[in-house]
Amino acid sequence: MNTEYTIPTDIQQLVNAEQAYYYRIIPVKKNNDTLLLKTDNENVAQLAEELIIILGQAVNVSIDSSENINKYLSVNYRKSTTERASEIHYSNDFLEKIVLTAKEIGSSDIHFEPYENRARVRLRLDGKLKEQFVIDNDEYPVIINKIKIRAQLDISEKRLPQDGRIAITTEYEDFDIRVSILPTLHGEKAVLRILSKDTNHIDLQTVGFTDSEQKIYLENIKKPNGIILISGPTGSGKTTTLYATLKKLNTPNTNILTVEDPIEYTLEGINQVQLKENIGLDFAATLRTFLRQDPDIIMVGEIRDVATANMAIRAALTGHLVLSTIHTNSAWATVSRLIDMGVPSFLIASTLNVSIAQRLLRKLCNNCKKKSPVSPETFPIGFQIPNDILYHHIPVGCDKCYQTGYSGRKAIYELLPIDKELMGLIKGNSLNIDEYINKKNIHTLKDNALEMIKNGETSVEEVSSLLME
Questions:
Q1: How many whole angstroms separate alpha carbon 350 and alpha carbon 73?
Q2: Calpha distance 328→339 (Å, rounded)
Q3: Sheet architecture: strand order including 34-39
Q4: What is the pTM assigned to this prediction?
Q5: Which of 35, 10, 25 minimizes the C-alpha distance to 64?
Q6: Are 12 and 36 in contact, with CB atoms under 8 Å apart?
Q7: Distances (CA, A) of 320 to 31, 225, 290, 334, 375
Q8: What's the CA gap between 52 and 35, in Å, rounded?
Q9: Per-residue DSSP letters for 314-338?
Q10: Rounded distance, CA 449 to CA 415, Å?
Q11: Cα(384)–Cα(376) distance, rounded to whole angstroms?
């Protein structure tokens, strides 16, 4: 990330992205009541007159080069991901401004964080957090209370965590926000997860499977019973893969039930249940009820404990297809985790159809990525560099990628279908299946990460954690 052109957040937020791009202005500093701005517009006097009205304060505008203005804009301001940016009219409500800004630029999460002398708002973009707003400590509790009221939470309770949900309706679309409130040293921290109701962009053809992986996956989801488990850390795209699968399986003659926390997308034709653990509606209890609802396919948001795992296996044994997620580092580690939970290995072997691990990796910007020779310092210490990797690409940064060097993300997968030989290894509680993986030519996460490096799709830095596993 190019830091030379970074504007302090408290100054940057005085001009929004639409104003910055439309007028080609960059806020630099504030002297008393006058905002100092840079521009490449030579008609400075007329521009200043208009900006005094638009920004509602005195301004002092100076000329800078178009090259510098472009760099300032791309580093500090994100353009809308939709084509209606010029139609967006923010209200005077600061909370609404933050939410609409986050939605328009494609952010997944909004973090409100209080500290001793100030509070800040960070947005998660392409998996990375970026500071977007600074809030005075006097104003921060007002914003938190507004969030609580919108989410129907108790504004008088400041000692315990709270969870809620906000439904947002705009002229263009409806979406939900999951709210999590956490008491911290200097006040309450809030995280807002933006949940889109639009599933048009979700498709198994585009989630990231290679042709061979997709063939294996489709074969397994066609089975009438068994368990399909997808593993990976938070934010690795597991839920998106599950919803793409449900869209594929959603037919008029199929009864699909899901229990989720939260419901991230809504799919017509699928019966979705929101988890409510505070009243006893947990995964295990809901699964018990599902078995009396004549289901064909069941989706469980996450297997967190042995009770949920046992109920999922019971559902698979009684002729249902069960899809779920679990937090492990690899496809084989999922099997080990279930055994550690106390699930008998013979039940895992007889019910698990396929174990999948996945990650989301940032893709290098095709406009500015740079080819560089491979050296031992490029890769993690001790990593054996494959002989066929002589070059790798590094991020540079340009206007199109907001000077980050990356543009978009891609999922990579590790598929472990359970055949008779692997069933025997599971029943025998084998800890190491490297020989089996090599014999079956199964592509691991590390293999697929190296393939992306070879193809110039991502950087070594982005996949270093996978290479060290």
A1: 57
A2: 13
A3: 25-31, 34-39, 58-63
A4: 0.82
A5: 25
A6: no
A7: 68, 4, 11, 20, 51
A8: 10
A9: HHHHTT-EEEEEE--SSHHHHHHHH
A10: 14
A11: 9
pLDDT tens digits for 176-190? 899 999 999 999 999
Handedness of CA 234, 237, 241, 244 (dihedral sign): positive
- Under the banding of pLDDT at 50, 70 and 90, the label for residue 86 is very low
Helices marked H in 78-139? 94-104
Helix (H, G, I), strand (E, B) or coil at 256: strand
Q: Measured in whole angstroms, how far is the alpha carbon of residue 49 from the centre of its chain? A: 42
Q: Please tell me whether residue 92 adopts helix, strand or coil conformation.
A: coil
In 3D space, the residue among 273, 283, 201 whose CA is nearest the CA of residue 237 turns out to be 201
Q: Which residues are registered as beta bridge partners of 174?
A: 169
* AA letter at 358: Q
395 with 406: CB under 8 angstroms? yes
pLDDT 10s digits, 259-312: 988 888 888 899 999 888 888 888 889 999 999 999 999 999 999 899 999 999
Q: How far apart are CA 65 and CA 59, in angstroms?
A: 19
b/e map 316-353, b = 16+ CB within 10 Å: beeebbbbbbbbbbbbbbbbbbbeebebebebbbbbbb
Q: Is the dihedral of CA 325, 330, 331, 333 positive or negative?
A: negative
For 44, the 3-state DSSP assignment is helix
Does residue 290 contact residue 257 with C-beta atoms inside 8 Å? yes
347: part of which helix (H) or strand (E)? helix 345-351
